[in-house]
Each structure stands twice: as structure tokens, then as C-alpha cells.
Design brief:
The chain has about 130 residues and is of the alpha+beta class. Helix content is about 30%, strand content about 40%. The protein has a five-stranded mixed β-sheet with strand order 1-2-3-4-5, with helices on both faces. The longest helix is centred in the first third of the chain and has 23 residues, at about 5-25. It has helices at about 5-25, 75-90; strands at about 30-35, 40-50, 50-60, 100-105, 115-120. The protein has a single domain (about 5-120), classed as Trna Endonuclease, Chain: A, domain 1. The protein is built from two helices and five strands.
Length: about 130
């Protein structure tokens, strides 16, 4: 893998670590990280009180392609909705209250992370 790919992986991993730290600091309890199944991956699954939260983390080093909060489009929302439904069924969490949050991590020029949580960022999408 080239250095650009390695840099993207480092940015992504660092962003997820920053997101977890921030969520824990706000009282979320992390249930799983990088949940994978045949349908794809959910970055973070957490509990915010009694609510199960499916978290998508978007990290950026610059605003060249738009801020990270705008990186979860309709297709990604549909995919995350499908993954969440699969997870709930697999874990037999029928009737659980759940929501989708997006954590936007911007790596600043000084190396610090600016973390923003968009709670209830989108509704469950049907359309598959």
C-alpha cells in the first residue's frame, strides 16, 4: 500500500480513537468497535443511557472534500440502516431504542483533533 493509503488508514484509526475517547467522556458506554458482518462494518456501537447508538466516524485532515459531517450521504445511511437492523436481529435486541450518530473528526494543522457529535444524524432508511 502506498503512503497515501497508509496516511488515510492512520487518519481513520486516529479519528475512531478520538471519537471513542470523546464519547466515553460524555458518558457513552462502548459496546463494540468495528463490528463486521457480511453486509459491511459499523465503526462504533455504544449505549447512551438506554439507547443503543450506531456511530459512523468520519475523519478529515482538510476541508478539501467538504467537512466530515457531510460525508454520510443517502447511500451510506441506507447501508448503515441495513447493518443496524442485522445487528439488532443477530443480537436479539428486538424493540430496543436506537439511533444513528455521526462523529466528525477534523485533524487540525497542529495535530489536535476537533470532534463534533451529530446526535440522531439521520433516521432509519428503508429502500433496500
Amino acid at each position: 500500500m502506498g503512503s497515501v493509503g497508509e496516511e488515510r488508514l492512520r487518519t481513520g484509526k486516529g479519528g475512531e480513537d478520538a471519537a471513542v475517547d470523546h464519547l466515553v467522556g460524555l458518558g457513552y458506554r462502548i459496546v463494540e468497535r468495528n463490528y463486521r458482518c457480511s453486509l459491511g462494518e459499523i465503526d462504533i456501537i455504544a449505549r447512551d443511557g438506554e439507547i443503543l447508538v450506531f456511530v459512523e466516524v468520519k475523519s478529515r485532515r482538510s476541508g478539501r472534500y467538504g467537512g466530515p459531517r457531510f460525508a454520510v450521504g443517502t447511500k451510506k445511511q441506507q447501508k448503515l440502516s441495513l447493518l443496524a437492523q442485522f445487528y439488532l436481529k443477530q443480537k436479539r435486541l428486538y424493540g430496543s431504542r436506537a439511533r444513528f450518530d455521526v462523529v466528525a473528526v477534523t485533524v487540525m494543522s497542529d495535530g489536535e483533533n476537533r470532534v463534533e457529535i451529530i446526535k440522531n444524524a439521520f433516521d432509519l432508511c428503508y429502500g433496500w
